[in-house]
Design brief:
It is a single chain. The longest helix is centred in the first third of the chain and has 18 residues. The chain contains one helix and 29 strands. It is mainly β and 368 residues long.
Length: 368
Amino acid sequence: MRINMKGILISIFVVFIVLMSSCVPRVKLFTLEVISDPDTIGIVLLDEIEQTEFEPSDIRLTPFSISLKPEERVVVRVVDEEPSEELDEIHVFDGWSDGSQDNPRVITVDSNKKLKAKTLTKFKVTVSTDPKKLVEIPGSGWYEKDSSLTLNAPQVENYTFNGWIVNGETINDNPLVITVNKPTKIEAVYSEIPFRTLSVGSEPEGLKIIIDSLEYTSPGSIQAREGTSHTIEFKAQERDESSFVSGIDTKYTFKSWNDSNTSNPRTVLLDSDKSYTVQTETRYLVETSTLPEGVASIDGAGWKVKGSLFSYVSPDSIGYDFSHWEVNGIRLDGRSIEITHDSAKKIVAVYTLKGYSVSVNTEPSGLK
């Protein structure tokens, strides 16, 4: 029987190695557990406290655990989330649960340890207006969770503030006070104040009226923003309207407005389209005379209220017989006429000389 000495030697060597390895003492490892509260945050483990450069792939999100040898040293650094256009919520470092504010900090393990980072949550708040960029309202930015935010919507010329839209909810308070506990979009809603028309007329038309100190020939009108106040006014006027009466023959004085208001001037609120008409008292001049001139005195000359009536009577005149009247060039018969004053009047009483017969006697008679 032949013995394989080479195989026996290999087996003895293997047994020796196994026995020797079982005699080497094992190194005990400790666990470093890193957690955060209340939110997940990024942690990077560094070799040196002065180290500032690392790869994004080196960042670990809490919670996680690592094993370290006794007295092994590690640098723990919290990596805050940076605000960006894409994010509306970030978590930032707010110290360690053991009271330390160091970041980064050096941890040397001599037992199993739990390291808790405290975090703050910040929410993005965006403040805008409708219409866009109508006015700048400060307040956009990042706010800690449960912080209070007060916004005031300013007055904007020619616009009315209608309220806020906060994450789709309408709120009419101004100023607006909210607690920021989530990403928040705030919109201040304005509407343009519409234009309204103020029209002012007169009876009769064509007289001068005044709107906000500017003179217009009626009917006149302006356009202005809804809710504004304006002054309208009528001043007494005199005109030369008749070709039969020389000089000023018609007067217009204020009586009232068409809504019976008697204030002049008056202030009106333009809360809708408005129209006003001034009611005037009109007076006409009446001139009386005779033809031939001065043969009689005709009563009734002077200023007469429009629509009034007066009876004109021709008096007797020595040496003259009354013939007829001429009123603004129109013949009227009768000793007495009743005239309605609807315009300026020139009233003329026309007389003719009475007829006489003359007898001439001679002595002796029969002479030529």
